[in-house]
Amino acid sequence: MPAGLKQKEVNLPTYEFDPKTNLKLRNWFVQEKRDLAFRKNRTPYSTWVSEIMLQQTRVAAMLPLYEKFIHRFPKPEDLAIAEEEEVFRYWQGLGYYSRAKNLLAGVQKLVNEFGGKFPKTLEEALSLPGVGPYTARAILSISYNLPFAVLDGNAKRVLSRLVLFKESGPKADPALQKIADSFLNLDFPGDHNEAVMELGARVCIPKPLCNECPLQNDCLAYQNGVQESIPEMEKKKKGNPFEYSFLYTKNETRNTFNSLS
Protein backbone atom coordinates (compact mmCIF):
# COMPACT_ATOMS: atom_id res chain seq x y z
CA MET A 1 0.00 0.00 0.00
CA PRO A 2 1.29 3.50 -0.80
CA ALA A 3 1.44 6.36 1.65
CA GLY A 4 -1.75 7.70 0.12
CA LEU A 5 -4.17 5.18 1.63
CA LYS A 6 -4.66 2.02 3.58
CA GLN A 7 -7.54 -0.39 3.31
CA LYS A 8 -9.41 -0.83 6.58
CA GLU A 9 -11.53 -3.86 5.67
CA VAL A 10 -10.42 -6.46 3.17
CA ASN A 11 -13.92 -7.06 1.83
CA LEU A 12 -15.24 -3.49 2.04
CA PRO A 13 -14.16 -0.54 -0.11
CA THR A 14 -13.54 1.71 2.89
CA TYR A 15 -10.27 3.61 2.96
CA GLU A 16 -8.32 6.15 4.96
CA PHE A 17 -6.40 8.63 2.84
CA ASP A 18 -3.24 10.43 3.79
CA PRO A 19 -4.07 14.16 4.09
CA LYS A 20 -0.99 14.81 1.95
CA THR A 21 -2.76 13.15 -0.97
CA ASN A 22 -5.60 15.64 -0.71
CA LEU A 23 -3.12 18.49 -0.39
CA LYS A 24 -1.34 17.43 -3.58
CA LEU A 25 -4.64 17.40 -5.44
CA ARG A 26 -5.73 20.77 -4.11
CA ASN A 27 -2.38 22.42 -4.90
CA TRP A 28 -2.52 21.04 -8.43
CA PHE A 29 -6.07 22.33 -8.92
CA VAL A 30 -5.30 25.81 -7.61
CA GLN A 31 -2.41 26.10 -10.05
CA GLU A 32 -3.81 24.27 -13.07
CA LYS A 33 -7.58 24.76 -13.08
CA ARG A 34 -9.08 26.14 -16.25
CA ASP A 35 -10.46 29.67 -16.25
CA LEU A 36 -14.06 28.85 -17.08
CA ALA A 37 -16.97 31.30 -17.10
CA PHE A 38 -19.17 29.22 -14.81
CA ARG A 39 -16.45 29.18 -12.14
CA LYS A 40 -16.49 32.96 -11.76
CA ASN A 41 -19.91 33.16 -10.13
CA ARG A 42 -20.66 30.08 -8.10
CA THR A 43 -24.22 30.76 -6.97
CA PRO A 44 -26.38 27.64 -6.57
CA TYR A 45 -28.41 28.71 -9.60
CA SER A 46 -25.43 29.26 -11.91
CA THR A 47 -23.85 26.01 -10.73
CA TRP A 48 -27.14 24.22 -11.39
CA VAL A 49 -27.40 25.59 -14.92
CA SER A 50 -23.77 24.75 -15.74
CA GLU A 51 -23.99 21.22 -14.37
CA ILE A 52 -27.13 20.45 -16.36
CA MET A 53 -25.61 21.92 -19.53
CA LEU A 54 -22.43 19.88 -19.10
CA GLN A 55 -24.35 16.61 -19.13
CA GLN A 56 -23.65 14.97 -22.49
CA THR A 57 -21.94 18.17 -23.73
CA ARG A 58 -18.27 19.15 -24.04
CA VAL A 59 -17.07 22.17 -22.09
CA ALA A 60 -15.92 24.01 -25.22
CA ALA A 61 -19.33 23.66 -26.85
CA MET A 62 -21.20 24.54 -23.68
CA LEU A 63 -19.38 27.74 -22.64
CA PRO A 64 -20.75 30.27 -25.18
CA LEU A 65 -24.27 28.90 -24.78
CA TYR A 66 -23.99 29.05 -20.99
CA GLU A 67 -23.00 32.72 -21.11
CA LYS A 68 -25.92 33.60 -23.40
CA PHE A 69 -28.34 31.65 -21.21
CA ILE A 70 -27.18 33.29 -17.98
CA HIS A 71 -27.24 36.71 -19.62
CA ARG A 72 -30.88 36.19 -20.61
CA PHE A 73 -31.90 34.43 -17.37
CA PRO A 74 -29.49 35.77 -14.70
CA LYS A 75 -31.63 34.71 -11.73
CA PRO A 76 -33.94 31.78 -11.04
CA GLU A 77 -36.89 34.19 -10.93
CA ASP A 78 -36.12 35.23 -14.52
CA LEU A 79 -36.10 31.65 -15.75
CA ALA A 80 -39.17 30.64 -13.74
CA ILE A 81 -41.46 33.04 -15.64
CA ALA A 82 -40.03 32.26 -19.08
CA GLU A 83 -41.99 30.42 -21.75
CA GLU A 84 -40.76 26.96 -22.56
CA GLU A 85 -40.35 27.90 -26.22
CA GLU A 86 -37.94 30.72 -25.34
CA VAL A 87 -35.97 28.49 -22.97
CA PHE A 88 -35.61 25.93 -25.75
CA ARG A 89 -34.42 28.68 -28.09
CA TYR A 90 -31.58 29.54 -25.72
CA TRP A 91 -30.83 25.83 -25.33
CA GLN A 92 -30.22 25.34 -29.04
CA GLY A 93 -26.88 23.70 -29.71
CA LEU A 94 -26.92 21.64 -26.52
CA GLY A 95 -29.49 19.05 -27.57
CA TYR A 96 -31.30 16.74 -25.13
CA TYR A 97 -34.10 19.26 -24.62
CA SER A 98 -35.56 17.21 -21.79
CA ARG A 99 -32.74 18.66 -19.68
CA ALA A 100 -33.99 22.19 -20.38
CA LYS A 101 -37.57 21.13 -19.67
CA ASN A 102 -36.58 19.61 -16.32
CA LEU A 103 -34.41 22.61 -15.45
CA LEU A 104 -37.35 24.93 -16.07
CA ALA A 105 -39.66 22.77 -13.95
CA GLY A 106 -37.05 22.56 -11.20
CA VAL A 107 -36.46 26.31 -11.10
CA GLN A 108 -40.20 26.98 -11.06
CA LYS A 109 -40.54 24.74 -8.01
CA LEU A 110 -37.52 26.44 -6.45
CA VAL A 111 -39.12 29.85 -6.82
CA ASN A 112 -42.64 28.77 -5.82
CA GLU A 113 -41.78 26.52 -2.87
CA PHE A 114 -38.33 27.64 -1.69
CA GLY A 115 -38.51 31.36 -2.35
CA GLY A 116 -35.86 31.12 -5.05
CA LYS A 117 -33.20 29.91 -2.59
CA PHE A 118 -31.63 26.55 -3.30
CA PRO A 119 -32.10 24.26 -0.28
CA LYS A 120 -29.12 23.22 1.81
CA THR A 121 -30.15 19.64 2.52
CA LEU A 122 -29.65 16.73 0.15
CA GLU A 123 -33.21 15.52 0.65
CA GLU A 124 -34.77 18.84 -0.31
CA ALA A 125 -32.37 19.33 -3.22
CA LEU A 126 -33.37 15.93 -4.61
CA SER A 127 -37.05 16.98 -4.50
CA LEU A 128 -36.45 19.40 -7.37
CA PRO A 129 -37.27 18.07 -10.87
CA GLY A 130 -34.19 17.16 -12.85
CA VAL A 131 -31.88 17.18 -9.82
CA GLY A 132 -30.33 13.78 -9.21
CA PRO A 133 -27.69 12.68 -6.67
CA TYR A 134 -24.73 13.97 -8.69
CA THR A 135 -26.25 17.39 -9.46
CA ALA A 136 -27.47 17.87 -5.89
CA ARG A 137 -24.10 17.00 -4.41
CA ALA A 138 -22.28 19.20 -6.90
CA ILE A 139 -24.41 22.25 -6.12
CA LEU A 140 -24.31 21.76 -2.35
CA SER A 141 -20.54 21.29 -2.26
CA ILE A 142 -19.48 23.85 -4.86
CA SER A 143 -21.87 26.66 -3.95
CA TYR A 144 -22.39 26.06 -0.22
CA ASN A 145 -19.10 24.26 0.57
CA LEU A 146 -21.06 21.46 2.21
CA PRO A 147 -19.36 18.05 2.65
CA PHE A 148 -20.84 16.05 -0.21
CA ALA A 149 -18.59 14.07 -2.54
CA VAL A 150 -19.64 13.87 -6.19
CA LEU A 151 -19.45 10.86 -8.43
CA ASP A 152 -19.46 11.43 -12.19
CA GLY A 153 -17.66 9.47 -14.90
CA ASN A 154 -14.40 11.33 -14.44
CA ALA A 155 -14.46 10.95 -10.66
CA LYS A 156 -15.18 7.24 -10.93
CA ARG A 157 -12.14 6.74 -13.16
CA VAL A 158 -9.83 8.72 -10.86
CA LEU A 159 -11.01 6.97 -7.69
CA SER A 160 -10.99 3.50 -9.25
CA ARG A 161 -7.39 3.88 -10.33
CA LEU A 162 -6.28 5.54 -7.11
CA VAL A 163 -7.40 2.60 -4.93
CA LEU A 164 -7.27 -0.13 -7.60
CA PHE A 165 -11.02 -0.66 -7.54
CA LYS A 166 -11.80 -2.89 -10.52
CA GLU A 167 -15.58 -3.06 -10.64
CA SER A 168 -17.66 -0.82 -12.86
CA GLY A 169 -21.26 -0.20 -13.79
CA PRO A 170 -24.24 0.83 -11.64
CA LYS A 171 -23.65 -1.96 -9.11
CA ALA A 172 -20.24 -0.49 -8.29
CA ASP A 173 -21.60 3.00 -7.56
CA PRO A 174 -22.40 2.48 -3.83
CA ALA A 175 -18.85 1.28 -3.17
CA LEU A 176 -17.36 4.11 -5.22
CA GLN A 177 -19.50 6.64 -3.38
CA LYS A 178 -18.04 5.39 -0.09
CA ILE A 179 -14.54 5.79 -1.51
CA ALA A 180 -15.40 9.29 -2.73
CA ASP A 181 -16.78 10.18 0.70
CA SER A 182 -13.60 8.92 2.37
CA PHE A 183 -11.39 10.91 0.00
CA LEU A 184 -13.35 14.16 0.33
CA ASN A 185 -11.41 17.16 1.61
CA LEU A 186 -13.75 18.38 4.34
CA ASP A 187 -12.08 21.79 4.49
CA PHE A 188 -12.60 22.49 0.78
CA PRO A 189 -15.28 20.08 -0.48
CA GLY A 190 -16.24 22.20 -3.48
CA ASP A 191 -12.69 22.68 -4.70
CA HIS A 192 -11.99 19.02 -4.02
CA ASN A 193 -14.89 17.81 -6.16
CA GLU A 194 -13.92 20.12 -9.00
CA ALA A 195 -10.30 19.01 -8.68
CA VAL A 196 -11.19 15.31 -8.95
CA MET A 197 -13.39 15.94 -11.98
CA GLU A 198 -10.79 18.22 -13.57
CA LEU A 199 -8.10 15.60 -13.07
CA GLY A 200 -10.31 12.99 -14.70
CA ALA A 201 -11.14 15.26 -17.62
CA ARG A 202 -7.59 16.35 -18.40
CA VAL A 203 -5.06 13.89 -16.96
CA CYS A 204 -6.66 10.67 -15.72
CA ILE A 205 -8.35 10.15 -19.07
CA PRO A 206 -9.07 6.68 -20.53
CA LYS A 207 -5.47 6.58 -21.78
CA PRO A 208 -3.98 8.36 -18.76
CA LEU A 209 -1.19 10.95 -18.77
CA CYS A 210 0.38 9.58 -15.61
CA ASN A 211 3.55 11.66 -15.83
CA GLU A 212 1.39 14.78 -15.46
CA CYS A 213 -0.63 13.47 -12.53
CA PRO A 214 -0.07 14.97 -9.06
CA LEU A 215 -1.23 11.69 -7.50
CA GLN A 216 1.05 9.39 -9.47
CA ASN A 217 2.97 8.20 -6.40
CA ASP A 218 -0.26 7.49 -4.53
CA CYS A 219 -2.01 5.61 -7.33
CA LEU A 220 -2.29 1.85 -6.82
CA ALA A 221 -3.25 1.21 -10.45
CA TYR A 222 -0.10 3.03 -11.62
CA GLN A 223 2.08 1.16 -9.14
CA ASN A 224 0.73 -2.11 -10.48
CA GLY A 225 0.99 -1.05 -14.12
CA VAL A 226 -2.71 -1.55 -14.81
CA GLN A 227 -3.89 2.06 -15.01
CA GLU A 228 -5.14 1.70 -18.59
CA SER A 229 -7.34 -1.29 -17.73
CA ILE A 230 -8.94 0.26 -14.63
CA PRO A 231 -11.86 0.53 -14.24
CA GLU A 232 -12.61 -2.76 -15.96
CA MET A 233 -15.33 -2.70 -18.56
CA GLU A 234 -18.62 -4.05 -17.30
CA LYS A 235 -19.24 -7.48 -18.74
CA LYS A 236 -22.42 -7.70 -20.74
CA LYS A 237 -24.59 -10.72 -20.15
CA LYS A 238 -24.75 -13.02 -23.11
CA GLY A 239 -28.18 -13.84 -24.39
CA ASN A 240 -29.41 -17.27 -25.35
CA PRO A 241 -30.41 -16.90 -29.00
CA PHE A 242 -32.40 -19.67 -30.58
CA GLU A 243 -30.39 -21.82 -32.92
CA TYR A 244 -31.95 -23.04 -36.11
CA SER A 245 -30.89 -25.38 -38.87
CA PHE A 246 -32.51 -25.06 -42.24
CA LEU A 247 -33.03 -27.36 -45.21
CA TYR A 248 -33.27 -25.59 -48.53
CA THR A 249 -35.70 -27.29 -50.91
CA LYS A 250 -36.65 -26.29 -54.38
CA ASN A 251 -39.61 -27.14 -56.52
CA GLU A 252 -41.07 -25.76 -59.71
CA THR A 253 -43.22 -23.12 -58.05
CA ARG A 254 -41.27 -21.72 -55.09
CA ASN A 255 -38.09 -21.80 -53.02
CA THR A 256 -38.65 -22.48 -49.29
CA PHE A 257 -36.62 -22.70 -46.05
CA ASN A 258 -37.85 -25.49 -43.75
CA SER A 259 -36.72 -25.40 -40.13
CA LEU A 260 -35.17 -28.64 -38.85
CA SER A 261 -35.24 -27.56 -35.19
Question: Which key phrases capture this entry?
Answer:
Endonuclease III, domain 1, 261 residues, disordered C terminus, elongated, 12 helices, two-stranded antiparallel sheet
Describe the structure.
By secondary structure, the protein is mainly alpha-helical. The chain has one domain: Hypothetical protein, domain 2 (Endonuclease III, domain 1). 48% of the residues lie in helices and 8% in strands. The strands form two sheets. Strands 1-2 form a two-stranded antiparallel ribbon. It has a two-stranded antiparallel sheet with strand order 3-4. Strand 3 (246-250) and strand 4 (255-259) form a beta hairpin. Helix 1 (19-32) crosses helix 11 (189-202), helix 2 crosses helix 3 and helix 8 (133-144) crosses helix 11. The protein is elongated.
Could you tell me the CATH topology label.
Endonuclease III, domain 1
User: Helical residue percent?
Assistant: 40-55%
Mean pLDDT: 87
Q: Which architecture does the CATH hierarchy give at level 2?
A: Orthogonal Bundle
Largest sheet: 2 strands, antiparallel
CATH class: Mainly Alpha
How does the overall form come out from the CA principal axes? Answer: elongated
Structural topology:
Blueprint: E1 5-9, E2 12-17, H1 19-32, H2 44-54, H3 59-72, H4 76-80, H5 84-91, H6 97-114, H7 122-125, H8 133-144, H9 153-163, H10 173-183, H11 189-202, H12 220-223, E3 246-250, E4 255-259
Offer a quick outline of the entry.
With 261 residues, the protein is mainly alpha-helical. Helices cover 48% and strands 8% of the residues. Strand 3 and strand 4 form a beta hairpin.
